[in-house]
Amino acid sequence: MKEQNFSYVPDEQELEKASNGYIMSLVAVVVGLPLPVINLLATFVFFLANRRSTYFVRWHCTQALLSQFSLFLVNTVGFWWTLSVLFREDVEISNPYIAYIATVLCFNIGELVLTIYTAIKTRKGEHISWWFYGPLTNLICKS
After folding, report:
1. Could you say which of 25, 35, 111, 124 has the lowest number of CB atoms within 10 Å?
2. Rounded to two decimals, what is the model's pTM?
3. Among 21, 92, 96, which Cα is nearest to 62's?
């Protein structure tokens, strides 16, 4: 994660919208915790609502959406694997299952902390680019 500067200073409304792009996924966690698709849908709807906004807002909404998409993939596998462990007789709790769920928990906690941090910094006008998602966002989101 690194901090970059845009060539212009975003106004107060842009800062709030960009920060809300990250906050949207946190609100969705509270609403739809057991279902991994809720976070992705909430972030996608916010992204669609702001896709014609300024570059700063679009960039941060895109980065938030990309992070939620990868989180969705990881959580979906864990969700369905857990359901199969609970409701199928031929699937047991195994070392690979425990390792995967531990990884999912670490990934979710890390993403939660980074999302809160990025939302706060973005609201203050600082441009935070995540390690993997920032360069990918640069490729997708054009000024």
Report:
1. 124
2. 0.82
3. 21
